[in-house]
Design goal:
Elements (H helix, E strand, L loop, with lengths): L5 H22 L1 H9 L2 H12 L4 H31 L1
Helix pairs in contact: 1-4, 2-3
């Protein structure tokens, strides 16, 4: 069995922060829904979630940090992929 090439590993690593962003957006969907709709139902939803330990600040921070890391790793992986194809 052959070992994966370093460029393949870098490209896979560049996807991991986007998985975190997706998870954070799913976690933040009640807040996003409340910001868009401003409905009594979404307010009740947030109130109920906050009683069970719903951490909006932490998810927002994780989404922001992983977005920046994802952008950096994606550009790095794409640049290395292009430079590898020219050689």
């Amino acid at each position: 069995m052959s070992r994966p090439k370093p460029t393949s590993i870098r490209l896979v690593l560049s996807l991991l922060p986007w998985v975190i962003v997706g998870g954070a957006l799913i976690y933040l969907s009640p807040v996003i829904a409340h910001l868009i709709l401003r409905d009594e139902l979404t307010a009740t939803w947030l109130k109920t979630l906050s009683r069970s330990g719903y951490y909006v600040k932490e998810a927002t921070i994780a989404a922001g940090i992983s977005t920046v890391i994802g952008i950096v790793l994606t550009f790095q992986g794409n640049g290395q992929q292009r430079s590898g194809n020219k050689a």
